[in-house]
């Protein structure tokens, strides 16, 4: 049985107790007061830490790119509003799992060292009730991270890339080679090389299949995009197959309709962060229908939009379970363990992403493995936490 000591250093809770009566009642820790205290400490530490690190990051990035800005005469307004303000949401989202854990450890370890956690649990408050405001805070962070990753950051990335194209370096290559895709059901298009500036493709072919049977093949030396889905071929040859018979037609030029536009040839994995959740889902569905298999990076980005925000709950579970116990070494020991776990989490995410892009495992499996692994660690620490 835990007895309340005669004098307890209560820190931030000191005003909540009647030291004359030396009693800590369940009523003292009312929902509103204890929740407000912990949520305020959690979110305050979280956003303050993020703001400090992002400010330092902006200074280093500005120092690195200053020569480019002067060389291309980038306007100050564009630097601020088209590059660095869009820069902030990206790094907030990227650092959210790390700073969720570190912020939580910083103030919870201090509470434990000041015997506030002991006082709360000694009052009869269950550990489950104690962690409730932590998960309220994690829910706020989850909503923020999901909104940033799915809708705010894609828009800000477009602004940053448009700025980079003008004042740092071009984002897209001027040409692309070996384009192959299914543009309609059973219709396979191939272009050996396509030039973006002229909108001309070289050594074009369009094959139509009925089941596994080839029924026609259209080839051309060049094909040029006109507008919408209109294309113009030069030096074309059309071959239609009907059983043992073959019909051939050719000419100098011919207009045709193909359900594809040139911008689709230049989509690379680096453009996945520019698509919001709806656009990314539609793109994946369209590419799968076209039989394009090299979309692992896009799938990885899509599933990360859901797994990374949920990481806030996992980091919260680990952090509160780890730092709520008063130990010799205090905040320093807890921070060391927290930084190690955060580094391991980021390492596992990077490794699983590499395995996904390399085709070793599915993007869904690769993205969720780190969360499942660290959820197991969190549940273990929760069982060992002081009750």
Features:
387 residues; alpha+beta; 6-stranded antiparallel sheet; disordered N terminus
Description:
The chain folds into two domains: 26-169 and 307-384, no CATH class; 175-261, no CATH class. 56% of the residues lie in helices and 18% in strands. It has eight helices and six strands, in the order ααααββββββαααα. The chain has helices at 31-71, 76-113, 116-122, 127-167, 277-289, 296-323, 330-357, 363-384, and strands spanning 175-184, 187-195, 200-210, 213-227, 230-242, 245-257. Strands 1-2-3-4-5-6 form a six-stranded antiparallel sheet, with no helix packed on it. Helix 1 (31-71) packs antiparallel against helix 2, helix 4 packs antiparallel against helix 6 and helix 5 (277-289) packs across helix 6 (296-323). The chain is elongated and about 90 Å long. The protein starts with 30 loop residues before the first helix and ends with a helix.
- Helical content band: 55-70%
Number of domains: 2
Tell me the total number of β-strands.
Answer: 6
Shape: elongated
Strand order of the largest sheet: 1-2-3-4-5-6
Structural class: alpha+beta
Count the helices. How many?
A: 8
Q: SSE order, as H and E?
A: HHHHEEEEEEHHHH
Low-confidence stretches: 1-30
CA gyration radius, whole angstroms: 29 Å
Mean pLDDT reading: 83
Largest pleated sheet:
6 strands, antiparallel
State the distance separating the first and last CA atoms.
Answer: 12 Å
Name the beta content range: 15-25%
């Amino acid at each position: 049985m835990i007895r309340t000591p005669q004098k307890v250093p209560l820190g931030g809770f000191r005003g909540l107790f009647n030291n004359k009566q030396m009693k800590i009642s369940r009523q003292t820790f009312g929902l509103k007061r204890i929740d407000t205290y912990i949520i305020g400490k959690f979110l305050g530490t979280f956003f303050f830490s993020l703001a400090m690190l992002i400010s330092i990051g902006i200074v280093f990035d500005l120092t690195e790119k200053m020569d480019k800005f002067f060389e291309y005469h980038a306007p100050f307004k564009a630097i601020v509003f088209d590059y660095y303000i869009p820069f902030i949401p990206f790094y907030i989202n990227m650092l959210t799992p790390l700073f969720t854990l570190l912020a939580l450890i910083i103030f919870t370890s201090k509470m434990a060292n000041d015997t506030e956690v002991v006082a709360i649990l000694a009052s009869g408050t269950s550990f489950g009730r104690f962690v409730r405001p932590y998960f309220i805070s994690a829910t706020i962070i989850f909503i923020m991270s999901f909104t940033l990753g799915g809708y705010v950051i894609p828009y800000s990335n477009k602004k940053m890339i448009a700025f980079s194209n003008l004042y740092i370096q071009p984002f897209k290559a001027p040409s692309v080679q070996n384009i192959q895709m299914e543009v309609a059901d059973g219709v396979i298009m191939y272009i050996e090389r396509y030039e973006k500036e002229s909108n001309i493709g070289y050594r074009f072919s369009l094959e139509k299949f009925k089941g596994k049977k080839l029924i026609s093949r259209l080839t051309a030396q060049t094909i040029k995009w006109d507008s919408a889905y209109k294309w113009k071929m030069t030096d074309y040859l059309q071959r239609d197959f009907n059983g043992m018979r073959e019909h051939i037609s050719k000419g100098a030029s011919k207009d045709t309709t193909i359900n594809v536009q040139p911008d689709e040839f230049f989509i690379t994995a680096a453009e996945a962060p520019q698509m919001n959740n709806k656009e990314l889902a539609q793109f994946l569905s369209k590419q799968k229908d076209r039989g394009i298999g090299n979309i692992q990076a896009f799938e990885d980005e899509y599933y990360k939009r859901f797994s990374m925000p949920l990481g806030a709950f996992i980091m919260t579970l680990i952090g509160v379970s780890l730092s709520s116990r008063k130990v010799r070494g205090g905040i320093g020991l807890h921070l060391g363990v927290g930084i190690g776990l955060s580094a391991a989490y980021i390492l596992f995410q990077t490794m699983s992403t590499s395995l996904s892009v390399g085709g070793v495992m599915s993007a869904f499996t690769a993205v969720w493995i780190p969360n499942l692994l660290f959820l197991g660690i969190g549940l273990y620490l929760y069982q060992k936490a002081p009750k």
